[in-house]
Structures are given as C-alpha cells and as structure tokens.
Amino acid sequence: MQQRESTLEFQSIAWKFFDFPKMSKNKLFKAWEEMIALNNGLMKEPHLGELLQRTVRNLEQNIPRMISFMDGEIDLEPWERWAYASFISSNETEVNLMSLMRDMMGLASVPALFGRALLDNHPDILLDIYDLDKGMMYFLMGLPRWTPWFPVTRAHLARARISRTLNAYHTALDATVEGRPVELAWGDLEDVNDLIWKRRAMFKDNGFAIEGGDIELLWALVVNATLLVYWQIHYILSVPGLLPLILAEITPYAYATKPEFIGRISEAPKLTLDYENLSKKCPLLKSTYLETLRLTAQPWSVRKATKDVVISEANNPASPVSFSLNKGEYVTIPHGLHMRDPKYFTDPEKFDAERFLVKNEDGSISTDSGTIRPFGEGPLMCPGRLLAEKECLAFVAGMLVFWEFQPADKSGWVVPEQKKTGGVSLPARETRVRIKKRKFVWDD
Fold first, then answer.
1. Residues 370, 376, 378, 383: what is their CA dihedral angle, to the nearest 10 degrees?
2. Is 11:32 a contact under the CB 8 Å cutoff?
3. Which of 57, 140, 299, 315 is the most exposed place for a label (fewest CB within 10 A)?
C-alpha cells in the first residue's frame, strides 16, 4: 500500500464512485498528484488552524441552539425535523441521536470550508451525501441507475443532485472571480475557504469540466466525522461512571457562560470551546476518540494494479508468503480486521475508554494511538485526520457540557450493532434519546 500510484492505482476507484465527467478523465489523471499535494498542503498550518477556527466557531454558535423545544413541526429547525424531534415539554425533547449528531457536525464543518451559501441554498445536500455514501459498493460494482433495486436508484439520484448543486456553486465561484454578476442567493462568497478557491483555480488551469467539482472533498468532509461524533457520545454515555470523569477533565476547556439578559428575556448561554487544549490536555477524552475510531472506523484501502507485481512478506522470513497480482486486478485491505485483532488488542470487541492512555516518566498521562490505521494507509492516507480529531473532540465536549442526554428506552443505553460502510460504520438502528439543556449555576 506504500507504493506510488504508478503501481497501485486509486484514480479508477474514485472515477467509478464520484462519476467525474468523461471529458475530464485524462486531465484529472495528469493533475492527480497536483490535486493531492494541494489538499495535503492546505491541511497544514496556517490553513488548518483557520479551518478549525471556523468550524469551532460554528459549533459554538450552533450547539446552544440545537433544540428549539417547539411544539409543532412547522416551528422546528430542519435538523430537528430530520431527527424526528418529538416535543415533551418546554425544556425536554425526544430525538434520533445519530441523525441529530450527524447533521449538527455537518452544519458546522461544511460552511467552514465551502461557505454558508452552499447549505443555505441547498440544505438537503447533507442528506444526499449520506445516500451517496450508502451506495458506494453499488457504484464500484458498476450497477446502473436503472437497476431494479431502489437503494441503487436512490444513490444514483443523490449523486446527480450533488453534481448539479456543485455545478451551480462553481458557476457562482467563476462569476465572482471573473467579475460577472452572481445570483443574489449566492451572495459575495467571501467566507469560502482558500482551499476551495485554489482548487477552483487548479480546475481552470487544467481545463477541467467542473460538473460535480469538489464532490469527493464534500463527501470526505461529511461522511466520517459526522458519524464518529455520534458513536463517541453514545459510547461515553453508555459506560457507567465515565461521563462525570469526562466532564471533570474537559470543563476548563469547554464551558458555557451566563447570557445577557434584557428584562426576563435572555440570549442562549455562550459556549466556548478551546479545541487545542481539548486535544492536548484531555487524555481521557482523546482516548475515547481513539477507541471509538478503533471500533467503528472500517476503512479499506483499494488499489488497481497497473502492472504485474509480487508482494512478499519480507518481515517474516521463517514463513515467507508472497502474493502475485496481475495487471488490472484490484487490491483491497480492510484495516478494520487489524483494529479488532486480539493479537494486538485485549478484548477487542469491548469499548475500553482507557485503552490508549499511557503513563509518562514524569507521572503525567497522555495517549498513544499505537498501530490503529483508521484513516487508511500509504501516500493517500487521509490528509484531514488532524482536522477530524480536533473538530470531533470540540464537538463532543461542547455537546456534553451543554446538554443532558437520557435514553428514551427504559432498558437504558444499548449500543446498536454496526452496518459496514466505506468509512465509519452506520448504526443498525437509531437510538431515541431525551435531551434537556444542562442546568448552569445562574439557573438557580
């Protein structure tokens, strides 16, 4: 998997899944490494810090207003409707946990990169990304849109809608750069991240057709982190006694402050999230993040051999094993098998919040990710892994310090079985929860 793309090709996999325009195929192959280098470069400082600041600022604004406590569907926010929110009282609502957590993460991360106008004009694009991801295997199998099975058709329709939306988005970007009139709905696009502008320039410089441009970036941004925060919160809430320990650790770096009052009317409490210290100084929180990745991330690296090659097990001369791959054959490595291997992880099916904690020589506690590979392997290892870690830790901390969660089912917290995907697993069923705003000292 460490070999360059000349031997084990990834582009053809992306081509099948994202359905890039045929007229751009050769141009994309020529510019592939330029695009990868651009993405990798903008996932480093100072660009990474800027993107994180935008994402966390969105979280600080969105988390306090997550639940409206309104009795009537017409008054609910879109994410509440998608989570089938059910009014209980003026301070309690019942929702689907996975849907709500997934959407709240997407509503923070997508505007941070693409600007607010994309979701303002096309709020359902998150739902289309979810359906696209569910259809990954259908696309890789080459199943056409007219296959008489609705999940296949739904995935194709979702991909087509995403392509049309991003085509309109890039048309607005082009008009902005070229000084032409832009539809009023798109605004001035001044909050679009530099990565998008530089990718747009790369598309233009290489003569790409922009239909569906950035679909792979949007998919990568949405599908994994949005599910990961759901699983991490679910695991934390499911382990007796773990939540108080997490809250004690994160409170210095994730906290709400008293809102401004005008008479009896007040704003929502202000949420502050110190994402750097949540990552550096909260080892238990970070260990639960790594353990959640180990249990729920199901990455599989896929490559196509462009020439005959023999792969040998060089590290084990006592029992040499070699594999012959012929040109045109595909290689798939499911990293999840290693992350649940009892040779490397004691009791691998169990969630162990302290699994990745290590004690340093000075007595301090830190984390060590060890041998897990939740972000793939080789030259195409996900460049956004540092972004994912810090935004997920900030999200989970913000949710836990601001809201109280209780299972709606009287049987208590039950972690659902997993449905495999191309990245982080989906739950086999939704979890209904009751949510209340946490009581703060000024509420007494």
1. -100
2. yes
3. 315
Can you tell me the distance from the alpha carbon of 350 to that of 352, in angstroms, rounded to the nearest whole number?
Answer: 6
Q: Is the peptide bond preceding residue 46 cis, with omega within 30 degrees of 0? A: yes
The C-alpha atoms of residue 206 and residue 213 are separated, in whole angstroms, by 13
**Alpha-carbon span 211 to 170, nearest angstrom:** 8
pTM, two decimal places: 0.88
With contact defined as beta carbons under 8 Å apart, do 211 and 364 qualify?
A: no
Digit-coded pLDDT (tens) for 348-405: 999 999 999 999 999 899 998 877 766 655 444 455 678 889 999 999 999 999 999 9
- Which residues of the chain carry a pLDDT beneath 70? 1-13, 42, 209-213, 262-266, 299-302, 313-320, 373-384, 422, 444
Two tokens at 317?
């001369």
CB atoms within 10 A of CB 387: 22
Distances in Å between the alpha carbon of 254 and those of 121, 301, 395, 427?
Answer: 32, 36, 10, 28
Residue 380: strand, helix, or coil: helix
Q: How far is CA 51 from CA 147, 224, 345, in A?
A: 40, 17, 34
Report d(CA 331, CA 137) in Å as an integer: 15
φ/ψ of 260, rounded to 5, equals -75, 140
CA distances from 342 to 294, 333, 348 (A): 13, 18, 6
| Helix residue ranges per DSSP H, 191-282 | 194-205, 215-223, 225-238, 242-250, 275-280
Q: At what angle do helices 11-18 and 25-41 cross, to 10 degrees?
A: 100
- 3-class DSSP state of 81: helix
User: 214: closest CA among 387, 382, 39?
Assistant: 39
d(CA 110, CA 101): 14
Q: What is the DSSP letter of 297?
A: B
Q: Is the dihedral of CA 151, 154, 228, 370 positive or negative?
A: positive
376 secondary structure, DSSP code: -
